[in-house]
Write a structure and sequence with these properties.
Mean pLDDT: 87
Strand content: 5-15%
Shape: flat
Strand order of the largest sheet: 1-2
Low-confidence stretches: none
Order of helices and strands: HHEEH
Radius of gyration: 14 Å
Largest sheet: 2 strands, antiparallel
Length: 92
């Protein structure tokens, strides 16, 4: 995998993570957190899709790596919502 392919995967994961955070209303951190949420969301969303026997939709192939866009956003939103519930701030 070349350096350019890694940068493109990081960009796509960051966009998916940012969309996932926007969907659930939880935003803590910047670009690096969005990238992490995008990658965790891809793993979580793909795992859930395989359990439910759903097809892989809207996947982008970069080099020899396939990144599931839809499942990354769905899994990232679930992950961000769980983190949001766990780290909820007390009301003032």
């Amino acid at each position: 995998m070349s350096f350019l392919e890694i940068l493109v995967l990081l960009l796509i994961a960051g966009i998916c993570g940012g969309l996932a955070q926007a969907l659930c209303g939880y935003s803590r951190g910047g670009c690096l957190i969005s990238i992490v949420i995008g990658f965790i969301g891809a793993f979580l969303g793909t795992w859930l899709a395989r359990l439910a026997e759903l097809p892989e939709m809207f996947a982008i192939t970069i080099g020899d790596t396939t990144f599931p866009i839809l499942w990354s956003i769905i899994g990232g939103a679930l992950f961000a919502a769980i983190i949001g519930f766990i780290t909820q701030r007390p009301a003032k």
